Amino acid sequence: MASLQYIPNAIGVDEAGRGCLAGPVVAAAVFLDDKIDWTDLNDSKKLTENSREKLYQKIVHNSIWRVVEKSSMEIDHSNILKVTLNAMYDAVNMLNLSQKKILIDGNQRPPFDSSMDISCICSGDAKIVNIAAASIIAKVTRDNIMRSMDEKYPQYGFGKHKGYGTKTHLLALEKCGPCEIHRYSYAPVSRLKR
């Protein structure tokens, strides 16, 4: 497998949780230390949970990073694309590194000033180290949030499926109805009563 490309002096941006039926969407912006070997990074979806956790610790201790969480309520009041792009925008702004190049996973540009040096890269988390780092930070952060939600709402199994529409989750929704962290604008949640 070919290693991912590292772009010096660039901020990687990605999100986790867009397709979930419950919980927040989480965006991460990461500026890596260029003196560290990052060849072990990969798209968070291609890593085991154990590998993600180890790389998360490596990134946290060797980069400048920020995460922004947007709730299911915010998603329901707007739409997932707008909320995700706003979360990415907020995460980058919190870094306060406005002179850097910004590399964003996907084909949609957050509402940055048009003069900023921004590249949107489809499947960027599988191509660019900087974006892969952001994907790991976003994924691990969101998974930890959903594990804590599992303690509050154990009937749904959030600790296992993290809010995605698995068979187990759908069966729990049918049996228990949705809870306050479900996204009511998403089918099949929208057809169930609170």
What does it look like?
The protein is of the alpha/beta class. It is built from six helices and five strands. It has helices spanning 49-61, 72-77, 80-95, 129-152, 158-161, 167-176, and strands spanning 10-16, 25-32, 63-70, 101-105, 118-121. A hairpin with an 8-residue loop joins strand 1 (10-16) and strand 2 (25-32). Helix 1 (49-61) packs across helix 4 (129-152). The chain is globular, with a radius of gyration of 17 Å. The model has no long low-confidence stretch (mean pLDDT 94).
Topology, element by element:
Blueprint (H helix, E strand, L loop, with lengths): L9 E7 L8 E8 L16 H13 L1 E8 L1 H6 L2 H16 L5 E5 L12 E4 L7 H24 L5 H4 L5 H10 L18
Parallel strand pairs: 1-4, 4-5
Antiparallel strand pairs: 1-2, 2-3
Distance between the termini: 47 Å
What name is given to the CATH topology? Nucleotidyltransferase, domain 5
Overall number of domains: 1
Largest sheet: 5 strands, mixed
- How much of the sequence lies in strands comes to 15-25%
Query: Level of helix content?
Result: 25-40%
Counting DSSP H or I runs of 4 or more residues, the number of helices is 6
